[in-house]
Amino acid sequence: MHVYPFQGEFPETIEEYLQHGNMKCIAFNRRGTLLAAGGSNGTCVIWDFETRGIARELRDKDCTAPITSVSWSKYGHRLLASATDKSLTLWDVLTEEKIARITLQQTPLHARLHPGSPTPSICLACPLSSAPLLVDLNTGSTTVLPVSISENVNPPAPNSRNKFADGTPPFTPTAAAFDKHGDLIYVGNSKGEILIVDSKSIEVHAVVLIPGGTVVKDIVFSRDGQYLLTNSNDRVIRVYKNILPVKGSGEEIRKISSNNNGYESRYDKLKANGASCLVLSCELSDAITKIQWKAPCFSGNGEWIVGASANKGELRLQIWDQAGRLVKILEGPKEALIDLAWHPVDPTIATVSVTGVVYIWAKEHVENWSAFAPDFVELEENEEYVEREDEFDLNGYEEKAEEVVIDENADIDIETSDKNAIFSDLEDSVDEIDFLPAIPSPDAPDEQPDKCLESSSKLEDSNHSGSPSSMDAVQNGQAIPPASSPMEVDNSTAEDPAEGPNSKRKRRLSAKGLELQQAEKGKKPTTKNKSNGKSAKSTSKQVEFANGNSSAVDDEATEDDEINIDS
């Protein structure tokens, strides 16, 4: 086993949720920095998993059907989406352009891009009621994969009643998956068999029999390619150890197949080859409830296996270790689960419920004060502290740190980057997409502020009354209310849709303010306001303002200002 920084850690609680329409499926990119989700309206959404913000929204006008699966290319440049309208759509993530779109004869439940190419055009599709297909997205050609090996050399013709409408036999597979580099394809069928097929020659090299002989619903590889799990109809998740080398598995299985020649039938030979490919490691099940499992997968480091309950009305996850011991049970809202994905690096799980919400499960955060002060010690109860004699002296004893000898003339390499231990089994690419640049989208223009602006300009010169009816008209977007307080919203700023709630409020100038403004412009100030009557009136205004009658002050001040200007 490898030692990872988060070994022994797994999710504990729902940290937050993501919602953008009704989501149906999810998938992380290779680094776990981006999360793609397919919606019920044919839209693919990509979240920046660090900021939880939407980085891309891929819309296809030709597809409005629900998305059944999403798959990233090796370095994150392309995204494949399968839909219930029998379509496969390949997207360029950076440019948001549609590279290819083809339509199959059956609805693809799952589709995965070839993991060996940086810009793949080959994908593996698992239709609803037919054999899995290798699809060339550039040309639209399809290759049907074999689904069964007969024990007899000349098998009897199957009964026509047991055939599907397209002529395929009744033991059509329900799952298929590439190995780590795409050299081999592992196909499961309804007879409880795993067929190991060469992805280039489409030849079956080995067969692995699953105990129980029931329908294989899921086949999933770990990130490092060393383990494989199957989910069968007998309510058991089985974990297998991959004996074949991760790199060059195609060449190795061809050597094994060429050496095993001492068998009476081809089927016996294929079973012997299968014993040299996979070894059963453990079986996982719920011995009490005997529930069916949905969307099982490995953790990012392969140390843990998670399976979700397929029962309706509950979001329940169970986590096991590689030895088959149950280590954690997670329970969420009363919503059935649709899809699940474990983060490639962190102990984080993303799940999709029937409501279309993406729940993020993470480890519960605990305050670690020693991270801020290494000598900090948590105490269960108060203890008496005896200070040193010179502890609080100005020139207390200080331990001298050992001097580190640094060669200042040594050359520093700033070009070579250290390899990340978590991705040591993967090839690093300079062109890999870890994050997507944000593209701001302009807001839709609002016509209502323009109408308000026109109506307010027409009422600019008229006398306003602060009646309740006029206030109701303003709330309906018909007019601007009169100044009912000393702080009145300026028309231009209040009606500007760009400023919105951050618009500033301006005070209306009084008679004295107008005099000062005219004095600054070099005009002679008016003397009408200096009369005894006006001064008495202004005194009464101040008294009224102090009593809170601000509306009367504004109205009278406005009338006086108009008289002064006209004179």
Describe the structure.
32% of the residues are buried. The protein is α+β, with helices and mostly antiparallel strands and 567 residues long. Helices cover 15% and strands 29% of the residues. The strands form 8 sheets. It has a 4-stranded antiparallel beta sheet with strand order 1-28-27-26, with no helix packed on it. A 4-stranded antiparallel beta sheet has the order 2-3-4-5, with no helix packed on it. The protein has a 4-stranded antiparallel beta sheet with strand order 6-7-8-9, with no helix packed on it.
**Morphology:** globular
Rg (CA only): 36 Å
Main β-sheet, spatial strand arrangement:
1-28-27-26
Uncertain residue ranges: 1-7, 151-169, 447-507, 523-567
Provide the residue-averaged pLDDT. 77
Number of helices: 8
Percent of sequence in beta strands = 25-35%
Number of strands: 30
**In oligomeric terms, what are we looking at?**
single chain
Largest beta sheet, briefly?
Answer: 4 strands, antiparallel
Q: By helix and strand content, what is the structural category?
A: alpha+beta
Alpha-carbon distance between the termini?
Answer: 95 Å
List keywords for this structure.
30 strands; 4-stranded antiparallel sheet; alpha+beta; single chain; 8 helices; disordered C terminus; 567 residues
